[in-house]
Fold:
Amino acid sequence: MHKLYVHPLPVRIWHWINALGFIALILSGVQIRYSDILAVLPFGLAVQLHNAIGFALIGNYFIWLLFYLFTDKIKVYHPDLNPARYYRDSLRQAAFYGYGIFKGRPNPHHVSVYRKFNALQSITYQIIMILLVPLQFYTGLLLWDVNGFAGSIELFGGVRMVSTVHVLLFIFFSAFIFIHPYLASLGHTPTAHFKAMITGYEEVEEEPVKDVAR
Ligand code: HEM
Structure:
């Protein structure tokens, strides 16, 4: 086994604060939305908690963003500009998750420092981190002060549109919070990727390959 340092400290700090925060936002969001049938917390307290955690996570997002913007590690998020190779790798990865893994076949993706994500992780994490997470934060911010942000809400299509987008993203992240850890448990051992997100080091069986920047 060889060890590769794939998750630098700022990414790990951002990730675990973000993960706990998203769980708390989902739970407090459910409490706010269904306060008539569920009363674990008083409504006002649930709103205060939801707002405070939301602001904390917006700040925390900048740890992730600034780290990647100001280091060469941004290469892990660079899309593969060769569409044929990208589609081939995506299909292979999907076939592995859907079939190969149950037959004991090897993972087609080989981790390296600048290519730690497989083709499916790469596109998913790009969409989540550059589009969905900021959109969730932005719609949350608008709903936090509907009078102060009246102009921006109007531009967005009205308060119903803002809250619908916020709730649809809530549904997406509620599913993601289960699917993502499941996929993260499919390393060479069930805990391998979790340990890597704690220590920073991913264990790889083969000799680390020399990275090719794309
Ligand atoms: C129960 C909560 C969560 C657990 C147990 C978990 C676990 C993990 C693990 C083990 C990894 C490293 C392996 C991999 O890349 O698949 C990872 C990476 C990642 N997770 Fe999570 N996660 C959780 C919640 C979240 C949430 C809520 C988000 C975003 C909204 C998120 C976004 C990401 C991203 C973007 C990466 C790649 C980070 C990078 O290296 O830049 N995770 N997660």
